Amino acid sequence: MKLLNLKTAGLGVLLIIASCSTSKQDQLTALKKEHDAIAEKIKTLEAEIAASDTSNANNEALALKVATKVMTPTVFNHFIEVQGRLDGEENLGVSAKMPGTVESVNVSMGDKVTKGQILAKLDDAVLQQNMKQLKDNLGFVTELYNKQKALWDQKIGSEVQYLSAKNNKESLENSIKTLQDQIDMMRIVSPINGTVEDISIKIGQSVGPGLPIFRVVNFSSMKVVAEIAESYSSRVNKGDEVIVRFPDLNRDITARISSASKYIGPQNRTFDVEVKMKPEFNNFKANMIAILKINDYRAEKAMVLPINLIQNDQQGSFVFIAVKDKDSYRAHKAPVKAGQSYNGLVEITSGLKEGDILITAGQLDLQDGQTIRL
Questions:
Q1: Domain carrying residue 28
Q2: Least crowded by CB within 10 Å, which of 16, 122, 245, 318?
Q3: Widest CA span of the chain, in angstroms?
Q4: How do residues 69-126 score in pLDDT, each as one tens digit?
Q5: What's the total number of domains in the chain?
Q6: pTM attached to this predicted model
Q7: Are strands 371-373 and 74-94 parallel, antiparallel or unpaired?
Q8: Last residue of a domain, one of 138, 156, 185
């Protein structure tokens, strides 16, 4: 009878609202609000009626079968995941020091090279001709100098003649040295020990300074570099544990952050981190994708549950737990406060304790105080 009177009263309210509204949209909004309020009252009354009925048969009929889990403390870890790339500790692009035409390429992709080894040679024919001419002139000037010096040693001739011959000889020697430096710069050499990983020139191609034409990488020491958002700057520090995942190799490696930059890039608002690694595998390659999972939070004894078990209403977040009531169990609406979440799990910082029976299935159809079957 209470339900019938409530429904009749609700209908009367709806008719009054509908007749007084001047806008169909306002009428619809008001009707929806009244519908939700009445539906909530009906569910509350049904739960009260079920609770007041001491008949075991009636309780069994209304009891809802649910799945449960006993809460126990567990370790909870939160990770920041960012994409980085693998790099050698020494990874250098090698360019020509002088403009010229490639005469020869002396290495191939994958070749191991040593510091100072010639990778390619530019055409230096003109410089070599100039060198030959300078050396011929030097021979003549040196002979004049030696004769002038011998005379000067005997106090024959003037000092001006001796100094002029000496200056001519030294000037040519300096010119030859300068030209030899230019000839040496026509040879492109490796600045480090390593492996040739890229060659972007061919014989006959013109090259110039500043454009890398070889890449030499030293994989005797390696690192993973990544950019991290500014918002994590206080949570990521040197020495933090990190799991480095290489998707292409299906391999996880545990390491620690070797450096975390104190500089925030003004354009992308990120800072750089590096993780040094040992070259454990031959199939590591420069610029290989690496996923960094940085452990920025850890709780040793936490109440952890799947995040989809948390529901929300006007009062806040809550879960349902099973509470013993004489010979049966009832659903209890337990307000909770959620902390960090990761990978579908969330840490509950308040509202649950060890031993609580968490309802993990069927909770969406429950009302506070409803009889349930475990």
A1: 1-52
A2: 16
A3: 144
A4: 999 999 999 888 999 998 877 888 899 988 999 999 999 888 889 998 999 999 988 8
A5: 2
A6: 0.55
A7: unpaired
A8: 185
